[in-house]
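Q: Convert this sequence to structure tokens.
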Amino acid sequence: MTNEERLHIFEEVDPGCITDALICFKIGAWMQGIFPVSKKAKIYGRAVTARFETVSDPEKILTPYEVIEMGEPGDVLVWNVDMDANIMGENIFHFIKGHGLNGIVLEGKIRDINEIEEIGGCVFSKGPAAYSAPVNFRPTKETVNVPVTVGGAVVRPGDYICGDANGVMVVPWEYADIVLEQARLNMVWEKELEEAIKAGFNSEQMKEVYGHLKKLDINRNQIIK
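A:
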């Protein structure tokens, strides 16, 4: 699949079906304590990662705006900002949207949550904070597009992120295609379950419906090299 094809499937399938696919294959990771500003938010896309830290040499500092410009339309920013102060607000989110990115997930805090919610912001964080991070607590070229930890989950550059109000998950990039194929099958099965329940199926009939789920075999031929 192309990245565009993957994004289309992420858009159409329920995140719960992707979670079930990850569980089925015993891969992936789920972030803890990372939730959206808006309960209606759904985020998905390739991860562009950055780790923020105290930088002693001002010449090495990258601004958040420079990091945002490293992403491509449809990507998701994934930042490790390990402090209680906020690292972004409404202005940075407008910059993210203006560059066509699908949102941001961060191990850190934000401000302007009311404004971000009003514009339907796909911003996932540890919550709000009024105090801003020091100007030298920033990424450098050496800490952009490296593996980072967010919500206890390791995210590599290029891994796929997917989440909603229930939380955020990490889909390893090399398994993205088979996970999305399984998620589509899960969607079909979930629809069958819903229809069976609405039709008044009893427990014995439901056992049969549960056996209808098709599971793909995860093998080397289905892993992206």
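The chain is about 30% helix and 25% strand.
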